[in-house]
Amino acid sequence: MLYTFDIIVVGGGHAGCEAAAAAAKMGSQVLLISMDMTKFASMSCNPAVGGVAKGQIVREIDALGGCTGIVTDKTSIQFRMLNRSKGPAMWSPRSQCDRTLFSVEWRKMLEANTNLSFWQDFVVNIFVNDGKVEGVQTALGVKFYSKAVILTAGTFLNGKIHVGRTQLVGGRMGEMPSVGLTEQLVSLGFESGRMKTGTPPRFDGRTINFEKLTIQHGDENPSKFSFLPEIKPVEKQKPCYIIRTSPEVHKILESGFDDSPLFIGIIKGIGPRYCPSIEDKIKTFSDKESHQLFLEPEGFDTNEYYLSGFSSSLPLDVQYKALRKVEGFENLKIFRPGYAIEYDYFPPTQLYHTLETKLVENLFFAGQINGTTGYEEAAAQGLMAGINAYLKLNNNEQFILSRNQAYIGVLIDDLVSKGVDEPYRMFTSRSEYRILLRQDNADERLTELSYKIGLASAERYKNVIVKQKAINELITFINEISVSPDEINPYLVSISSAEINQKRKLADVLSRPEVSVVTVLNVISDIKCKLEGIGNLTLEVIEEAEIIIKYSGYIDREQLLVEKMLRLEKVKIPENFDYSKINITIEARQKLNMIRPATIGQASRISGVSPADISVLLVLLGR
Predict the structure, then answer these.
(1) CA-based radius of gyration for the chain
(2) CA angle 488-541-457, nearest 5°?
(3) Is the residue at 457 inside a domain?
(4) Are both 57 and 122 inside the same structural domain?
(5) Fewer CB in 10 Å around end: N or C, the chain?
(6) Contacts of 547 (CB under 8 A, 6+ apart)
């Protein structure tokens, strides 16, 4: 058996799978060590991928040549584009998936890569010699050696599960935790902390009265995550359901507060602000008589359902009694109660933007170990860690995405520059350039960059070039062609839009929010005929061209902001710069010494570093 590899990935979750797949695809010999090879990229919480900002991240992962979008599309059971009523910067794809098939499909993709090997075991020790990682040792006593290690431990580091006053050790319900790695890393000088997350109960769908619930269908014409043309949208969709709690449900849940590990101090870890448990919602929003919840199917061929919004660590009997008072749940049976889980993490200010640790060379952290929450955030980090591990071992330039290039860039820059004081979740509001970082143009932003480093395929890059050409041709056509009142007014009247009284450029008409390119092309047959010369005129192309035309002013304005920001990013700070001797605030001095920013731009985003401090730095650097 071969015991030496280029890269070892510890953990088979979303981060680990993307890291292993990327590094192996680029050419490294990779070993993926997982506790359970039947649960690759397990959907530990809700059986869904995407959502607000998270959907943009998945499209970026796909544009870079990652696998999460492809696996999601292949296992989708419902697709919805969220926030369609808002501007395109807010449009966010989300897909319900078949939980079991998701792991199966991931395993197929991983096993198809001949550069990737597997080992099912626990890692109990990381070999470090003279500040450089050299491999790992497993619980079976097997020693594997490598030039780099990517640690993606998820919620397994000293994981502890809470259901009321009952406590179990585990990284997930029924699975053993990882013990000893935190203590070893702390002995090497790393700082660690404790976080908490939760998951709702699972139900037997045969005991639910769905006729009493509000049905929520997927999109009539569903889209998909992957930009690859051979990957198709979901055809057969399953519905979700909307339900609401009641004062009676709240009263029963409140009866368990005295046994809640969250309220009586048993749980010490910091929980996610934007995904609170049901008991936290009731206590924080005591004035509300009802909370909206979503009942989601776990797959095509199962009766198991998931209740989104009802994560809880309350005692089982309290959860059960309260749920049976929800309309439609009168005869409910539970497969598994909701529970909270505490686990160790390492503040991400201890990392470079490549996700390599500053203390140990060639040791990378990715996923929840960095204080994030969510499959999408974890997968993005894994992908970037896998890419950068490969590039470093092959003496190539590091691959770092800036804040104006991708949500992935925002994610990593926030983690490394600002750190976390609660589980980090991505939102569109975290990006100052969200009109540029739309879900529809992720391939145009990122695929060429990935192709140049050897991850995205030539075929994928060719598709982007063809798409860009079609978009540019369509925009030119729309900007040049005029429409007469006779051609366009009947349509404008039908949508209650003001009529025109003379010929106008089509682009002017399309600048109106209520006017749709697709509809205009359908109602004016002459225009449709003239468009036949533009190849690859897909709905995706038409939609992006419309966004660019309608929002050109906003796009241009953000581009100017990007150019200003890039000027600061180009001002490098020497690696050994001595902050202790300069006249800035004590907090700024401490933060700058700890984080060691590479540029003035990064320094300006560190919490506690003021514009005045940045001005001092600029003067000292000769700017």
Answers:
(1) 26
(2) 175
(3) no
(4) yes
(5) N
(6) 88, 438, 440
Check if the beta carbon of residue 260 is closer than 8 Å to that of residue 277: no
Residue type, position 352, single letter: Y
**Torsion over CA of 401, 402, 405 and 411, rounded to 10 degrees?**
80
* Distances 466 to 215, 469, 525 between C-alpha atoms, Å: 40, 5, 25
pTM of this prediction? 0.93
For CA atoms 306, 310, 316, 317, the dihedral sign is: negative
* CATH value at residue 299: 2.40.30.260
For the stretch 224-233, pLDDT in tens is 999 999 999 9
Q: Dump pLDDT digits (tens) for 342-386.
A: 999 999 999 999 999 999 999 999 999 999 999 999 999 999 999
DSSP letter string over 146-198? EEEEEE--TT-BT-EEEETTEEEE-SBTTBPPB-SHHHHHHHTT---EEEEEE
Q: How many domains does the chain have?
A: 4
Cα–Cα nearest to 332, from 205, 201, 245, 207: 207
Count Cα neighbours of 422 within 13 Å in the Cβ-side half-sphere. 8
Q: Are 531 and 521 in contact (CB under 8 A)?
A: yes
Same domain for 54 and 130: yes
Is 207 in contact with 333 (CB distance < 8 Å)?
A: yes
CA 46 – CA 308 distance, rounded (Å): 7
For 244, the domain range is 202-340
**Token pair 């994560």: residue:** 311
Q: What's the CA gap between 55 and 35, in Å, rounded?
A: 28
Q: CB-side exposure of 603: number of CA atoms within 13 Å?
A: 31
Judge whether 455 lies within some domain: no
- Same domain for 37 and 160? yes
Angle (CA) 231-234-237 rounded to 5° is 170
CATH number of the domain within which 583 lies:
1.10.150.570
User: Which structure tokens are listed for 412?
Assistant: 């990593």
Residues 247-263 have pLDDT tens digits of 999 999 999 999 888 88
What CA–CA distance (Å, rounded) separates 409 from 364?
17
Residues in the chain: 623
* Residue the block writes with tokens 């700082």: 191
Answer whether residue 444 is part of any domain: no
Same domain, 32 and 145: yes
Main-chain dihedrals φ then ψ at residue 587, nearest 5 degrees: -60, -45
- Residue 454 belongs to some domain of the structure: no
